[in-house]
Amino acid sequence: MNQTMKRVLNTVLISAVSAGLLAGCGGGEGTKQPVDVQASAKPFEGEKLTIVTANHPWGDAIKEMVPQFEAKTGMKVDVQSFFEDQLTQKLTVQFTAGSASPDVYMYRPLQEAKLFFKNGWIQPLDDYAKKDDDYDFNDFSKAAVGSNTVDGKLTGIPIITEQHILYYRKDLLQKAGIPVPKTMDELIEAAKKLHDPKNEMYGFAARGQLSALVSQISSFMYSEGGEFMQGDKATLNTQESIKGMATYATLLKDYGPPGVLNMSWPQAIGVFAQGKAAFFADANSIYKNATDPEKSKIADHVGFALFPAGKAGSKPFNITSWGLTMNSKSANKDAAWEFMKWATSKEIVLATQKKGNPGARLSVWDNPEGTTAFPKEYADVTKETQKGGVDHSLPQINNVSEARDIIGAIVQKAISGEDIKAAADQANKEFQALIDKEKGK
């Protein structure tokens, strides 16, 4: 009886193996290959995920490719999109109520990571991102990863990056015989030479609005060795921080356009695009406003350069403006990571970057196909900046909005002719009080 059972079992086993081998055949006369069971398996088949994105080109690109992911995994994915303010409001309401939906969502790390993480709305991703060698987490820009790190925990995966760069008028510099500025001193000198307000030509344009300018002065401060804060200590009135802010204020006060105190980026780049400024410093993400012939009168004359160096070198912000993160209450965490892993893989980052979405994978920037959507000089500058830079452009506290108003006042007072040292001392006291309050001191 036992021998009979053994023969039956052996027969079944041989049949099963044979069936598996035959399933791997292409049907031709070539060598038959066994099927890779691991690769063809769909362990998440039947799972359902809800993904929330901002109304952003990256979200649009991913939504188009979701059917590929569904076919590959057997999952069903519901992608919902909202405008930025609606997105934050919706997520805050749902997470406050303890909702398990959405499973995965886009977020703005510098504005939301600390608060969302503190509230327990974000699932730390360290174990997920670093356990899979094929995912190659080390391929991401270190600064972009830093933007998504809170208290040493990985809060999200970078999907859209921004770097601070210098825009310039190639034609004006060539005509005047001025080389592209590589240092702060050279930038000030070049702006001075090209400043001609009588003919509506201004040496430098940038944000001067109270809150909006704070992210822009960051790179000037970093490049002089300054910072907003060190640990729990405000450092707005250090010699290095004041030097960086003073340079920015001088450029706008002495060589900027009229009404600069009311300018955010749309107004500032508008001055540049209308051919009324020689230099413009801001995020590279808005470059099309200067290069699109329908928006710009100088589209063929725009140059892109690395951020000028100060005493501490060239240290522009190199940040994640949008990341992808996981709801800590998600009931499908492994499935949610499977989506995140796919959406931020080398293959998909290349596909989305070819559509004009600047990602954080260094290998994609090194791939000639990864830069086809951008002007060559822009791609070269971005690629170089991705290698370094500073991972934040704003003070790293929960109450970013109030901090921005405090810090922005320093530069606005300096632009208006007030003593920047006195303004920095006062702001430093106010900022320190805000930090202490947040820390429960």
Question: Tags for this entry?
Answer:
D-Maltodextrin-Binding Protein, domain 2, alpha/beta, 441 residues, globular, 12 strands, eight-stranded mixed beta sheet
Helix-strand layout with pairing:
Layout: H1 2-23, H2 37-40, E1 48-54, H3 57-73, E2 76-82, H4 84-96, E3 104-107, H5 109-118, H6 126-130, H7 142-147, E4 149-150, E5 153-154, E6 157-169, H8 170-176, H9 184-194, E7 202-205, H10 214-223, E8 229-230, E9 233-234, H11 239-255, H12 265-273, E10 277-283, H13 288-291, E11 302-305, E12 318-326, H14 333-343, H15 346-353, H16 362-366, H17 376-385, H18 400-415, H19 420-438
Parallel strand pairs: 1-2, 1-3, 7-10
Antiparallel strand pairs: 3-12, 4-5, 6-10, 6-11, 6-12, 8-9
Helix pairs in contact: 9-11, 10-11, 11-18, 18-19
How would you describe what is shown here?
It is a single chain. The chain is globular. The strands form three sheets. Strands 1, 2, 3, 6, 7, 10, 11 and 12 form an eight-stranded mixed β-sheet that branches. A two-stranded antiparallel sheet has the order 4-5. The chain has helices spanning 2-23, 37-40, 57-73, 84-96, 109-118, 126-130, 142-147, 170-176, 184-194, 214-223, 239-255, 265-273, 288-291, 333-343, 346-353, 362-366, 376-385, 400-415, 420-438; strands spanning 48-54, 76-82, 104-107, 149-150, 153-154, 157-169, 202-205, 229-230, 233-234, 277-283, 302-305, 318-326. The chain has two domains: 48-161 and 319-385, D-Maltodextrin-Binding Protein, domain 2 (3-Layer(aba) Sandwich); 163-317 and 394-438, 3-Layer(aba) Sandwich (D-Maltodextrin-Binding Protein, domain 2), CATH 3.40.190. It has 441 residues and is of the alpha/beta class. 46% of the residues lie in helices and 14% in strands.
